[in-house]
Amino acid sequence: MPSKYMKADVIGVGKLISERGYFRVPDHQRDYAWPTGAVDQFLEDIEMALKENETDYFIGLIVLVEPTLDLSWQILDGQQRLATATMVYSAIRSWLIENGFDKDGQKVQERYIGISELGEAKDRPRIALNVKDRNIFESVVANQVSDNYLEEQKKKSGRNSSKRKVLEALMTCRSFISKLALDAGGDVTNQAKKLFSLADYIRDNVHVAYMDVPSSGNAYVIFESLNDRGIDLSVLDLVKNYVFSKAGADLKKVQYNWIKMTTTLADRKADDFLKVFWTSRYGRVQRGALFNKIKAKYNKKALAVKLSEELCEAVELYAALDSHDSDIWTDHSEETKEHIKTLTLLAGTQVRPIILSALLKFNPNKIERLLYWLVSLIVRYQTVGGGRTGRLEQQCTSVAPRIYSGDLSSPQNVWDQIKSIVPKDDEFFNDFQAYEEATASKARYILSRLEITKWQQENPGKGIEKTPCADPNILNLEHILPKNPSEKWAEVIATDKHIVSDLLNNIGNLALLNSKANKKIGSSAFEEKSSNIYSDSEMLTTKQLATEFTKWDRESIENRAKRLAKLAVSAWPIDY
User: Do 135 and 273 lie in a common domain?
Assistant: First the structure.
């Protein structure tokens, strides 16, 4: 019977899962939503904490409603973390069973993943997701399936469905576990021991703060209070309390700095700023270990006051990283402002520690050159290449402190340290041919850069302000093969029924048009578009559609993607 009082404590997430028995996500709550990038980050942070022997890695708050008749704890907040932690254990179990450690795999299964009652063929998962995700989670996470089975299920799932997210998250966990095992050397026993250590670390040291409430109504009152300021359990709040407690006679000065800092920060995520501040000076850190790192570094009164001053200075620069029209850029070139706008558009947040350090150490000319290369890095590695964000973050946070210390004193020095992860021309060429972009603003940017590159090749010496796409925001994005083809496309669809689902957002199927032309053509046949619109376009890459293609099918899309890929190699070079 549930109590009438709330309980709260801190516990290892694996221990919470094993001790509580069963958990259930209410059917009205959202689906599993973590993309592979978030799963990668979760895994890499835990791996780094394990390597550095962090005794306390904190991953946030879990709010649970006490069980009633079905004996399951209802998860009101924290399902993404609990479900992903279970997937990590599932991946460990699968590796152990596949490599001959069946008994150990079964122990992992029973303690953290699922158990079956007498007479049951399948295990009941310790965590049941909402009604939409429950079956897939039970079938592939709680029970042992092959990698091939996961691939088959992924092909059958919708591209943006929560089912696909569950499958991709589990596949990411399996890939991570396989790599972690190989890092232990060639001996399979040592590999297994490495995974045992990880399983125990998640059980004992990857901590959550859990709150047990007797009913969901109690929890919603808590959420309203916690979220009133929009920064739930912010590490920055912990730092604030620490700095204020250390300030002594300088409290008013620290309070002034803090008010100024938070005003500048505005609605930006507080912990993101704090993490970029730290990594720009001292290197990579996980969010869960950030507060302890700061306390250890700024452990005296004078240092605590200095921290408030440094944060106040840094936040002015940090706020400019997503504002190309900030006063910070007044003395910088228009090219620099465009690079900042581009990095914001492409969500190139991993390079922020580098820029933050560089703004304190480099002059405007050096900043322009550095940003030029960082744009190429983000486009080649992340936007087109789909590289792992964890690897990119690791590279950037290893470079940023060396800029801050003065060890890397020029953009060339920085680039020499970064470019090892940047796809070379042949790899980028291949990546670009398969590149898909569903976000219109990003697609317009990519196509406009290709158009400018084409213009420069055909008009050497002329300024790019002469190009018709100098401002991509005034242009519309055209899907040559439309999302909802009319009867005029019946022959193409009949010949290749998967062409829309496979290639709608492929870069070869996208073009730039002015808004007036875009409104005219709708889902007209390619031949009509070509003769009436594309042939008259000012955009060279769009005009080529009329001069170089007589029909529009899979082969045409792939050929055009190849031609655009050649331009891309020049548009985002790895040499200045």
Answer: no
Q: Are strands 23-24 and 73-77 parallel, antiparallel or unpaired?
A: parallel
pTM: 0.68
Assess whether 411 and 487 both reside in one domain: no
Q: Are residues 51 and 195 in the same domain?
A: yes
Domain match, 438 and 393 both? no
Does some domain include residue 2?
A: no
285 & 398 share domain: yes
Between residues 459 and 11, which one has the greater pLDDT? 11
Of 174, 207, 226, at which residue does a domain stop? 226
Amino acid at 257: N
Same-domain pairing of 95 and 121? yes
The length of the chain in residues reads: 576
Q: Give yes or no: residues 243 and 363 share one domain.
A: yes
Query: Do residues 340 and 354 touch, judged by C-beta distance below 8 A?
Result: no
**Residue 98 belongs to domain spanning:** 7-226
DSSP 112: I
- Min mean pLDDT across 285-294, 394-403, 525-534 is at 285-294
Only one residue has tokens 């501040």, namely: 277
Q: Is residue 159 part of a domain?
A: yes
Which of the four pLDDT bands, split at 50, 70 and 90, describes residue 225? Answer: very low
* Residue 478: strand pairing partners: 511
* Residues paired with residue 216 on neighbouring β-strands, in sequence order: none
What is the distance between the alpha carbons of residues 290 and 129, in angstroms, rounded to a whole number? 31
pLDDT at 53: 86
Q: Residue 4 pLDDT more than 80?
A: no
Bridge partners of residue 511, in order along the sequence:
478
* Same domain flag for 255 and 191: no
Q: Are the CB atoms for 343 and 331 separated by under 8 Å?
A: no
Q: Quick check: is 489 in a domain? A: yes
Nearest CA to 214 out of 78, 68, 10 is that of 68
Split into its structural domains, the chain has a count of: 3
Supply the pLDDT for residue 268.
84
Rounded Cα gap, residues 448 and 465, in angstroms: 12
Beta bridge partners of 64: 75, 212
230 pLDDT above the threshold of 50: no
Is 386 exposed, middle or buried, given 0-12, 13-18 or 19+ CB atoms closer than 10 A? middle
From 401, 424, 447, the end of a domain falls on 424
The conformation of residue 506, written as its DSSP 8-state character, comes to B
Most confident of 49-53, 171-175, 521-525: 171-175
Quote the pLDDT of residue 573: 93
Distances (CA, A) of 80 to 25, 77, 331, 407, 488: 10, 8, 44, 40, 45
Mean of pLDDT values over 77-86: 91
Find the mean pLDDT for residues 191-218: 86
User: In this structure, is residue 1 part of a structural domain?
Assistant: no
- Under a CB-based contact definition with an 8 Å cutoff, are residues 353 and 396 in contact? yes
Cα separation, 72 vs 82, in Å, equals: 14
